[in-house]
């Protein structure tokens, strides 16, 4: 298997236009979670989006609330779309494994991004997010929904790397880093085959 970073970066660069056409809106569950993440934030508050992709639909929805996005992604092609869509925001080309957030941030999200990174790096990423959040801030993320080894799968004809702890381990890791889990739910359940499941988590810090 190719290096996960190289594989995913090349593949996301290759499918950027297809992703842009396909990922135009949030599901009702995603919209509800995002509303809870951003509830009560004042205009201009900083929101960190780790794995922001093209900026649609998550960062776009954050910006529409008058908040300032710092979007981080490893795909230059995806970031080019984000910059074109939301030019007044902060877009950074970086790997999440090495990115050092310059907080404080009023909220953060890592939506459908953490499970593209080898699980050995997840705890350190969570630790850096926690350190960059302001008191009372919230964090929204997705993790894999079952126990499984790392694997690859295809999207728009290109191969991608996936890895995740089972959800109970991810929840325990968040708590170990000082997060208080507010809500967690399956967005799709594992089917024993190709679909390994996907869990959404909303957490906060004191």
TrEMBL record:
GO terms of biological process kind: lipid metabolic process; methylation
Name of one Pfam family that matches: Methyltransf_23
Any GO MF annotation of the entry: methyltransferase activity
Entry keyword Phosphoprotein: no
Assigned protein family: Belongs to the CFA/CMAS family.
Residues of the signal peptide: none
InterPro entries to which the protein is assigned, alphabetical: CFA/CMAS, SAM-dependent_MTases_sf
Keywords: Lipid metabolism, Methyltransferase, S-adenosyl-L-methionine, Transferase
Protein name: Methyltransferase type 12
Organism in which the protein naturally occurs: Rubrivivax gelatinosus (strain NBRC 100245 / IL144)
